[in-house]
Every structure is written in C-alpha cells, then in structure tokens.
Specification:
Belongs to the LysR transcriptional regulatory family. The chain is α/β, with parallel strands linked by helices and 315 residues long. It has helices spanning 5-17, 20-27, 31-45, 61-84, 101-112, 126-134, 150-154, 201-214, 227-235, 281-289, 302-308; strands at 50-52, 57-59, 91-94, 118-121, 140-143, 157-171, 181-183, 192-193, 218-219, 241-245, 256-262, 265-274, 298-299. It folds into three domains: 5-84, Orthogonal Bundle (Arc Repressor Mutant, subunit A); 91-162 and 270-296, 3-Layer(aba) Sandwich (D-Maltodextrin-Binding Protein, domain 2), CATH 3.40.190; 165-266, 3-Layer(aba) Sandwich (D-Maltodextrin-Binding Protein, domain 2). It has eleven helices and 13 strands. Strands 3, 4, 5, 6, 7, 10, 11, 12 and 13 form a nine-stranded mixed sheet that branches.
C-alpha cells in the first residue's frame, strides 16, 4: 500500500486545526478538496480518522495513532526533496507584531548581512504559531516559551535572545510624566491599566504574574484593539499608567511619555523557537544574540527564568 502525500498533508493540517475550513486556508485549497483528500486517505487505510460532528471535528483513536507517523512521513519526504534540489530557501520567521522588539532583531540581522533571505509573518502569539511550525509553514517563531505546555515545549528547540525591559506609557498630564524612572516599590501607589480583551495570551499571563508578585493594582478592562488605540486612550487618561515593552515602536505623538522601571527592572523574555533547524538559523542566532548578557538587577517570574534556560544564551 502506498500513501498519497497530498492526502497525508491534508490529514495532518486538519488534525492540527480540527477545522476543515481552517485547514483549507492553510493549504490554499478549497474545503471540499481537503475533505476529499481525507476521505480518500480513510478509504485507503480502511479506517475512520476523524469524527465529524455538526459543531466540531475530533480525531478518532485511529487518527490519533496515525498522526505522529504522518508528521514523520511528511518530514522525511521534505528532507528527501531538499537533499537533491539545490536551494537557498528563505528563512520564514513569525514575529507576532511589526512594532514589537523581535522585528527589530530581524532588521538588525538583515542590515548586518547582505542577501539574507528572510520572510516575516505575524500570527498573534507563540501558541498560535505552533501549527505553522509543525507544518513547516514557518521555520522559527519569537515568543515567551513559558506560554507553552511541557508537551509542546518538548518537541521544540528554543533559545533566549532578548530580555526586554518594561516601561510605563503615561499621559503628559500624568504625575509621573516628567520622571525618567520609577521604582517597583513606589509603583504600588500607581493605578496600572492594561486592556487585555483579545490581547496575546502570553503577554496577559506575564502581566498577571508581575502584578501578583509586586502587589500592584492592575486594571485589565477594555479591548486590546491596536497600538494606536492604546496610545490615544492613555493620552486621554491622566489617571492611569500602562505597562509596555521599552523597545516597542510607538506612533509619534507629543501627548504621552515613557517612564522606565527600576529597582529591579522587570524584563520580558523573548525566545526564538524552532522545530527543524534551517541552514540560516545559526547565522541569525549569532547575529541577534551577540553581546547578550543576563543583567544582574532584573525581575523575571521564576517559571520564565527556569524555562528560558539562563545559561543557554550567554548569561
């Protein structure tokens, strides 16, 4: 019996999405095509791989047993093709958002090396990028690795590449607007506002741990619509301060100010995560981690410190 790789790929993507419509979007085919390929594969195997209900799709026990072997089969096929077809394949990276620190790291690498082929995508968080990593739609993704479960993390390699300091975004009318820094101890008297409705889950979890650890008053009400919306809202609310990454690229405005946090400085851990090592990945890692050190006076959740692997990134 021979397997049709197009059918196997349709099964793997559908299994990752548990939604035939979403699988069709990833494969750039119609939903009907995905359904037909999976049906033909089930016919060849004489086994039902999915239970298809009115509102949900689930793997059968046979489908769950077949999935890891199907993933390995696709990987072997891709590797076989790559071994005989010369290529300078583009390094595909997921950076979460165009105004966040990871894109700055990528831009640094591009400026440093001539003809460095990189393609960037944005999937709104590391957990959302996992299916694309498994399906080799992207080669690596930036994010906070503690957002992943131990099972998810076990199938991936990762390296800490940046500890980004946190800062406060405040209105020009806020009492802290003229301060360059504020200590974490004095922050307990400041009303913090971070609208998290629809925000990236790994950022929301980090802020919750930060507030709990330092006994801070954190208001998370409101939608996380866009960075421009956030800046406009902060500018109009002189009673609140909003935690942000200090390297975030803010839209030009004279109505807000950035205040840095100290004693200690809270930092957000950015890691690069990958499943299969792309030939250009070592070059990228060397470029974006050159000079990386672990600062002495920083705060990081203990779970992040352990998961990030302090010794693995030069600190």
């Amino acid at each position: 019996m021979e397997l049709d790789l197009a059918q196997v790929r349709a099964f793997v993507v559908a299994a990752e999405e548990l939604h035939f419509g979403h699988a069709a979007e990833r494969l750039a085919v119609s939903q009907q095509a995905v359904s037909k390929r999976v049906a033909k594969l089930e016919e060849s195997l004489a086994a039902r791989l999915f239970d298809r209900g009115t509102h949900k799709v689930e793997l059968t026990s046979a489908g769950a047993r077949f999935l890891p072997h199907a993933i390995e089969a696709l990987a072997a096929a891709d590797a076989a093709i790559a071994s005989v077809v010369p290529t300078t394949r583009t390094l595909r990276l997921d950076v979460l958002d165009e105004r966040l620190a990871p894109l700055q790291l990528v831009q640094h690498a591009v400026r440093r090396f001539d003809d460095f082929p990189i393609e960037v995508s944005m999937r709104h968080g590391l957990p959302a990028a996992l299916p694309a990593l498994r399906n080799r739609e992207v080669d690596a993704a930036f994010g906070r690795v503690h957002a992943l479960t131990p099972g998810q993390l076990a199938e991936l390699d990762h390296q800490l590449v940046l500890l980004e300091p946190l800062a406060l975004l405040v209105s020009r009318e806020h009492p802290l607007a003229d301060a360059e820094t504020v200590t974490l101890a004095s922050l307990r008297e400041v009303r913090l506002w971070a609208p998290l409705g629809g925000a990236v889950a790994e950022w929301a979890d980090y802020l919750a741990q930060f507030a709990d650890a330092w006994q801070l008053k954190l208001d998370t009400t409101g939608p996380a619509l866009s960075l421009d919306y956030l800046v406009d809202e902060v500018a109009a609310r002189p009673d609140v301060a909003t935690p942000i990454g200090a390297r975030m690229q803010l839209p030009p405005t004279s109505h807000t100010a950035v205040v840095y946090l100290t004693d200690p400085t809270p930092v957000y851990p950015w890691s690069l995560v990958w499943r299969d090592e792309h030939p250009l990945l070592p070059t990228l890692l060397e470029s974006i981690t050159r000079g990386f050190t672990w600062p002495s006076d920083v705060w990081l959740p203990e779970a992040d410190r352990a998961t990030s692997g302090r010794g693995s990134a030069g600190g």
